[in-house]
Amino acid sequence: MAPKFGTSGLRGLVTELTADLVADHVRAFLRARPTGGAVFVGRDLRASSPDLAAVVVATARDEGLDVTDCGALPTPALAMAAMAAGAAAVMVTGSHIPADRNGLKFYTPAGEITKDDEAAILAGLGAAPAGRAGGWSDGAAAAPAFAARYLRAYGGALAGLRIGVWQHSSVARDLLMQVLADCGAVPVALGRSDSFVPVDTEAVEAPWREAFRAWVAAQGLDALISTDGDADRPMMADETGRLVPGDVLGALTAQALRAEVVATTVSANTCVDLMGGFSVRRTKIGSPYVIAAMEEAAGARVVGYEPNGGFLLGFAAQGPTGPLAPLMTRDCLLPLLAPLAAARARGLSLSGLVATLPARFTATLRLQGVEPAVSAAFLSRVEADPAALMAAAGLAPVVSVGRTDGWRAHLEGGEVLHLRPSGNAPEFRVYAEADSAGRADEIGQTALAAVAAALRA
Q1: How many angstroms separate the CA atoms of 147 and 143, rounded?
Q2: In the CATH hierarchy, which fold is given to the domain comprising 4-140?
C-alpha cells in the first residue's frame, strides 16, 4: 500500500517513505499551515524513526524555521511542549502499525491538524526547497515537563497501589515508571523489548492478554498499564488481568473530572449515555471530529475520547492534589491515572470501579491485509442485503442502521454490530456491543468469521 496522507498524518512502508517524499510533505505542511516560526520534532522507538526524524529536522531548517529536537518522547508530550511555545510540531511515528511501516503526525500551534489542514497540505505538495538555514536547539525538557503535569495533579494519589508497566517498545515506557512512582505507586517493569512491538490498544492480541493475566497473578498487581508505540493511546488491565477498554477508561475519566459535555465517536461504549450527568455528542471516528465537537461546546466542562482511549481535556480541571490544565490532543496518561485514583479514593478495586458503570460491554476485532477498495465493495453488499450476513453470523435481525461512519446496526434485543474499514491501515474493523463481556466477544468473533468468509468468497 503506497504512503497515504490524511488527518492521522502520513503513513506507509518504510521502503516507500523516501527522504524526498517525507521532505515534500513536511515542506507542504510548513508552508500551508501556521507554525509560529518554529517546529518541535519528536519520534518513537522504531528502528526507522531516527533517520526519518533527521529528514524532518533538515527540511524544517531548510525552510528557515528554528527546530527544537525533542528526541524520543510521547506524542502528547511533544504536542504539549509545542503548543505551549506557540509552535508547530512533527512526530515521527507509525503509532500502532507494524515495524515495517512508519509515518508522520503534524500539529499546528493550535493542536492536531483538521480535515481543512489536510486539504491545504495536499494542495501544497511539489514545492521546491527554500535553501534557508534555521536554528536548532535541544528539546530534552519536553518529556519531564509532561511528567510534571501529572505530579501536580496526582502526586501521592496512587499510594499503596502496585502497578505493572508492560514496557514493550512504547516510547513512554520509562516515563510511565517515573510518573507512577511520583504518584505514590510501586511500578513493576514487565515485557521490555529491544525490537518494535505493534500494539493496537483497541485490539490487543490474545497471547498478550494471556500474558497480562499471568503477570498480574504472579506479581500481585492492582492493575497493569501500557500504551501504543507513540503513547497517545492508553492500555489498562484490572487486578484480574482483564483489559478495560479505552472508551470505559474515557467514561470513568470524564466522571472523575466532573465533565459536563462528552464528545466521543459513534463506535464508543454507550455506557456513557446511560450514566447520566453528561451531554454526549457522537461523531465520526477520528480525533479531528472529536475535537470539532469539543470546540462547539467551548466554555463548558468538555472532554473528548475515542475507543482507543486517547483522551482530550478541554477545560481547566482539578486533580486530587492539584490543577490540570487543558490539553487538546490525545493523551495516554490522564485516562490511566484518573480511574486508578478514583478507585483508590473510593476503596474499590479497578474491576469494582468498572462494575459501578451501566452494564454495556464492547469487543473490537480486525482483519488485517484488507485493502480499502475491497472493504468498500463488501460494505455495499452488506447494506444491500444485511440479512445474509446476520444469518451467516447467527445474529438477530437488524432493527435500524446508522451510517455516521461505516455500517452500525442495532439488532433485536439491544445488541450492536458495527462494521468499518480502518481509516489509516489496510484493515477491516468489527465492533460489537452487548450487556455482557462474553456476549460482546461472541458477537464480534462470529461476525468476524462471517466477514472473513464473505471476503474470501
Answers
A1: 6
A2: Alpha-D-Glucose-1,6-Bisphosphate; Chain A, domain 3 (3.40.120)
